[in-house]
Amino acid sequence: MLKNNLPLFLLLPLLFFMSSCSHYYYVPESNMIKVSKAGDLKVAGALSPSFVDKSSVSTKLQKYSIQAAYSPLENIAIRANYFKLKEIETFQNLTTRSGQGFIAGGSISYYTHLNKRLLEYNQPSLQYYTLLDISLGLDHGKAINYYMNGGQSSLSFRKTYLQAGINTKKDIIELGIALRGAQIDYYKGQTSGNIQEFELQDIIIIENKDPFYLLELSGRFSIAFKYFSVYSTANLSLTTNTGLAYRPFILQTGVLLNIDEFFFKQLSFNRKRKKSDSE
């Protein structure tokens, strides 16, 4: 009897180890939408379901985000963002880790052109510029984790940050990089159900060491078309010694719409049409 149960006995510590080391309570996320003049209005959306299979360990990761940026005045921009992530990890058909969370918030930014050159009249996608951007932002987030024995934890946090970035565009190619200093403050938390003591360690660390200070790096690559862009954004945390259990890297791909350019074109078209009809 003991001999038959030996593989299961050896397997359980492995599953517990995977579970305890893999729960995340924060994911780096950024809004790098750039506006370059007063009146610019841009909206971006990313939906990135993925499924990773590593031998007998399978991870299903779903993430999506909605972001917007608007420049009401020259050199001033406001941004809003919402990001959600859900992750499920299984080992030999047994769920070893699952969790979900979101981050929502906004920022106010100052931007300035280091240089700018329009290559063709009335073709916003065909231009060259380098843009410097400084943002001050506030986000609210929540991390919900589910444990092997049926327990659950829910932690709410505030994120304040200062971000400096540089963005360059030539013709249809746009590249951007941003460095962000952030403070993560967990202000509310609760647990329920059966949670093993070793699984509680990450939550105890958060309780004892809060707040946390992180340095994050973001990169963005996009290809611009007439009224929209296809982009990819990578967010990386450069801080590793805080004790906070978080996902250090996240990658997103999505589509950005140039709302102002589209409606300006439609408005101009309608005016020309009315003028020709009147004549």
Structural notes for this entry:
Helices cover 18% and strands 58% of the residues. By secondary structure, the chain is of the alpha+beta class. The protein has a single domain (2-278), classed as Porin (Beta Barrel), CATH 2.40.160.20.
In short:
The protein is an alpha+beta fold. It is 18% helix and 58% strand. The chain is built from three helices and eleven strands.
Descriptive keywords:
279 residues; alpha+beta; Porin; 10-stranded antiparallel beta barrel; 3 helices; 11 strands; 58% strand; elongated
What is the SS-derived class?
A: alpha+beta
Mean pLDDT: 80
Query: What gross morphology would you assign?
Result: elongated
Sketch the major β-sheet: 10 strands, antiparallel, barrel
**What is the number of helices?**
3
Strand content: over 45%
Radius of gyration: 23 Å
**Spatial arrangement of strands, main beta sheet:** 1-3-4-5-6-7-8-9-10-11
| CATH level 1 class label | Mainly Beta
User: What portion of residues is helical?
Assistant: 10-25%
Q: What is the second-level CATH architecture? A: Beta Barrel
**Uncertain regions: pLDDT < 50 for 5+ in a row?**
1-21, 267-275
Tell me the CATH topology.
Answer: Porin
Total separate domains:
1
**Ends apart, CA distance between termini:** 96 Å
Query: What is the number of E strands?
Result: 11
The ordered string of helix (H) and strand (E) elements is HEEEEEEEEHEEEH
